[in-house]
Design goal:
Number of domains: 4
Shape: globular
Helix content: 25-40%
Strand content: 15-25%
CATH topology of the largest domain: Uridine Diphospho-n-acetylenolpyruvylglucosamine Reductase, domain 3
Number of strands: 19
Length: 475
């Protein structure tokens, strides 16, 4: 047995350290087939365990790869054979809920769906809702800086973290407590915002204080299909001008909606581009809000309109089916026609944002890029904040096309930059978008920002043992 494994078993206990090859393989994958390997998988149960681990890793130059549920899709959670993957699944206590002060204290292994199930009993919610909300954990969402369908109203994870307890990879396994339980906090540099979205490269999150908010009393939802993108965007503009309290605004383009329905089926069907809008309101105003939304859709030229007066009714009607099935449909389409059961498709979920006024141009240019290279693409996103998710793939048998595929992905990121957008909105950089990060900062004549990030990394992690080679490209 590796010396480090023997020492870790003595330090943490045999039940917290696994060298089983199947277990290690399970915790060395993310959601899109990126795979790594590790010496062992470690499952801490307390901050004390994490501090011991960090101190030992520092003393012995042992790499640490922190992980939530590994539902990320950019390679930020996958380990290498030179270290250990640390999974926080056993640290899943909700320690405190305070509705008067509007916060909850949770360990990193708490799943976002579990947290919301508890909060909803009293009419509250935590509004960060990535597509992987059923599996995504608090710690993983903090590391990734996650967003979701309610991002246009509520932002991303960085807007909802009030305080953090973290462990540093240093000679003491130092435990830092940052922020607190108040909405306002101006105590020096904002280290919390550095850690949120750092993809596990700066510190190990062991506890978080999260801001919570009242759940809407009523959510009215309307969906409609548009034959023309300009008509859809005109509808978006009119909804925003109407001063309705938009909670969700989602888009799926015509080709993707058609492919998704044909591949996975849907209760909601129609011709053209799909726009879904959910609005927060109160019981007394629900029908008035529904009628106002339907009128806007109709005036903008929607050819088929669905509406629901509650979120439960919307779910029963399947209004969100096409949008939620964007990624599953792409997996199924990527898997069709494989030569054998052992072959794997490599699926890449892009995560660009452009100003909402540039969405029509962005969608057209994305289709042109797809036609230029001949790679298949499905397309949807959060139209309310301009966040688009083109999903592209290449099969294992087509690895000779990988160079062209990489150029395809770079062209997508370059297009976002040219339209005044960004190359990553909520998924992060990981191992797969480093070139895009360089491209982005070069376009702003700000490559020095990357050097500053490297210096920050050295201060937090002087030996580069915490999730090395993730997020930051060489400069």
């Amino acid at each position: 047995m590796n010396r480090h494994i023997e020492e870790l078993i003595k330090l943490l206990g045999e039940d917290k350290v696994s060298t089983d090859p199947i277990t290690i393989k399970l915790y060395s994958k993310n959601a899109v087939y990126y795979e790594g390997s590790a010496l062992a998988a470690v499952f801490p149960e307390s901050t004390v365990d994490v501090s011991k681990l960090a101190r030992y890793a520092y003393e012995n130059d042992l790499k640490i790869y922190p992980q939530g549920s590994a539902s990320e899709i950019v390679g930020s959670s996958t380990p290498r054979e030179d270290g250990i993957v640390v999974n926080f699944m056993r640290m899943r206590k909700i320690k405190e809920i305070n509705y008067v002060d509007s916060y909850v204290v949770a360990e990193p292994g708490v799943r976002l769906i579990e947290l919301n199930n508890v909060l909803r009993r009293d009419g509250y919610m935590f509004p960060i809702d990535p597509a992987s909300i059923k599996s995504a954990t608090v710690g993983g969402a903090i590391n990734s800086g996650s967003g979701g369908m309610m991002g246009a109203k509520y932002g991303t994870m960085k807007d909802w973290v009030l305080g953090l307890e973290v462990v540093l990879p240093d000679e003491d396994g130092t435990v830092l407590r940052l922020g607190g339980k108040t909405t306002k906090n101006r105590e020096g540099y904002d280290l919390i915002r550095l850690i949120v979205g750092s993809e596990g490269t700066l510190a190990l999150v062991t506890e978080s204080t999260l801001r919570i908010t009242l759940a809407p009393e009523r959510v009215v939802t309307v969906a409609g299909f548009f034959g023309d993108l300009e008509d859809l965007m005109a509808c978006v503009v009119e909804i925003k001008k109407s001063k309705l309290d938009v909670l969700i605004m989602e888009f799926v383009d015509d080709a993707t909606a058609k492919m998704t329905v044909e591949t996975l089926g849907s209760k909601v069907v129609g011709e053209g581009h799909l726009l879904i809008t959910s609005v927060s309101t109160v019981d007394e105003a629900a029908e008035r809000v529904r009628d106002a939304l339907v009128h806007i859709y109709d005036e903008a030229g929607a050819n088929k309109i669905y509406s629901a007066l509650t979120m439960e009714e919307a779910e029963d009607m399947g209004i969100f089916d096409i949008r939620r099935n964007l990624y599953p449909a792409s997996i199924k389409m990527a898997s069709m026609g494989l030569r054998d059961d052992e072959e794997k498709p490599y699926i890449f979920v892009e995560d660009i944002s452009v100003p909402p006024t540039k969405l029509v141009e962005a969608v057209r240019r994305l289709r042109n890029i797809s036609d230029k290279y001949g790679f298949p693409m499905v397309l949807g996103g959060h139209v309310g904040d301009g966040n688009l998710h083109p999903v592209v793939w290449i099969r294992e048998s087509e690895r000779d096309k990988m160079e062209q595929f990489n150029k395809f992905v770079l062209d997508i990121m370059e297009m976002a930059i040219e339209l005044g957008g960004v190359i990553s909105s909520e998924h992060g950089i990981g191992t797969v978008k480093k070139d895009g990060l360089i491209m982005s900062f070069r376009s702003k004549n700000s490559l020095k920002a990357l050097r500053l990030m490297h210096e920050i990394k050295k201060i937090f992690d002087p030996k580069n043992i915490l999730n090395p080679d993730k997020m930051l490209p060489s400069v």
